[in-house]
Q: What sequence folds into this?
C-alpha cells in the first residue's frame, strides 16, 4: 500500500480561514499530518470540526481574502473522484444518505458503489472480476460477508457503518478520516469498530475527528484541539491530551485519566 503515496505529507494547511457569509467558522488553521502519523482532532460541538472535515474532502474552500496554502498529498488541486482513491472519508452523514436515498441497496452494492463514488449501483455500472473479488475480500475483512445480500435499511447501525468503511476500502486508500465513528453504536459494537481501526492503522494513516476521548486508541500518535474556531494546541498526544487542556476546550472542569492505553473521563465538575 505504501507505494501509492504521492507525498509524505498528507495534510498541509497553512493560514486557512473559512467563512459562511459574514460569519467566521474557522480561522488561522495550521495543520500538517505526515505519513506514519495517526491523529485525533478533538473539540466540542460547534467548535468547527465539521467544517474542517469539509476542507479535508474538498467540499469547502478557504477564504481567498487571506494568503493560505492548502495541500492534500502534496497537491493543491484534485479531481474529487481521484482524491477519494487516496483519502477515505467516513462520515455519519454519508451513512444517513444511504439510509435515506439508497436503503434498498445490499451490503455488496454499497461497497461496490465506492468504485463510482455513487449512492448505490446502477444498471450502467459494470465491474471487472478483479473488482468483484476485491469487494469480497473487503467484506471478509470487515466480517460482513454473511450480510452480503442484506438491504441497508435492515442492517444494524454497526453493520451500516462497516459498509461505509468498506466502500472506502475498495481503493485501499493511504489515509482515512473518520467523523465521530462510534456515535450511535452499542458498547460491543464500539469495541469491535475500534479494533478494525487499529488494524487499519498498521498500514494506513488514521485521522479521528471527534468530541469523544474514548474513541482514541493506542495507535493515535498526535492530537489537535479545536477551540473557538481555531486549533488551540497540537502535538504529540501525550503532551496535548491533559485534564487542563480538555477543561479549556470543553469549558468545564475535566479529570482525564488513562488506563490500559485508553483515555477516559473520570469526572466532570
A:
Amino acid at each position: 500500500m505504501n507505494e501509492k503515496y504521492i507525498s509524505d505529507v498528507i495534510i498541509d494547511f497553512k493560514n486557512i480561514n473559512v467563512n459562511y457569509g459574514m460569519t467566521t467558522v474557522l480561522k488561522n488553521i495550521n495543520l500538517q499530518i505526515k505519513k506514519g502519523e495517526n491523529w485525533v482532532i478533538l473539540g466540542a460541538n460547534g467548535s468547527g470540526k465539521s467544517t474542517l472535515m469539509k476542507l479535508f474532502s474538498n467540499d469547502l474552500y478557504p477564504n481567498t481574502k487571506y494568503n493560505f496554502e492548502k495541500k492534500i498529498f502534496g497537491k493543491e488541486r484534485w479531481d474529487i473522484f481521484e482524491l477519494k482513491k487516496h483519502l477515505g472519508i467516513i462520515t455519519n452523514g454519508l451513512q444517513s444518505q444511504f439510509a435515506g436515498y439508497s436503503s434498498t441497496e445490499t451490503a455488496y452494492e454499497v461497497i461496490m458503489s465506492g468504485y463510482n463514488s455513487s449512492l448505490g449501483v446502477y444498471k450502467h455500472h459494470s465491474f471487472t472480476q478483479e473488482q468483484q473479488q476485491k469487494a469480497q475480500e473487503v467484506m471478509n475483512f470487515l466480517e460482513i460477508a454473511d450480510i452480503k445480500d442484506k438491504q441497508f435499511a435492515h442492517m444494524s447501525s454497526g453493520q451500516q457503518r462497516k459498509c461505509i468503511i468498506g466502500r472506502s476500502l475498495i481503493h485501499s486508500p493511504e489515509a482515512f478520516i473518520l467523523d465521530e465513528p462510534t456515535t450511535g453504536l452499542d458498547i460491543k459494537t464500539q469495541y469491535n469498530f475500534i479494533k478494525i481501526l487499529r488494524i487499519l492503522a498498521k498500514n494506513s494513516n488514521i485521522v479521528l475527528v471527534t468530541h469523544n476521548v474514548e474513541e482514541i486508541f493506542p495507535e493515535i500518535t498526535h492530537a489537535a484541539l479545536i477551540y473557538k474556531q481555531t486549533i488551540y494546541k497540537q502535538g504529540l498526544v501525550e503532551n496535548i491530551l491533559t485534564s487542563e487542556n480538555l477543561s479549556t476546550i470543553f469549558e468545564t472542569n475535566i479529570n482525564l485519566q488513562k488506563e490500559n492505553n485508553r483515555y477516559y473521563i473520570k469526572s466532570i465538575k
The radius of gyration is 19 Å. The longest strand covers residues 9-20.
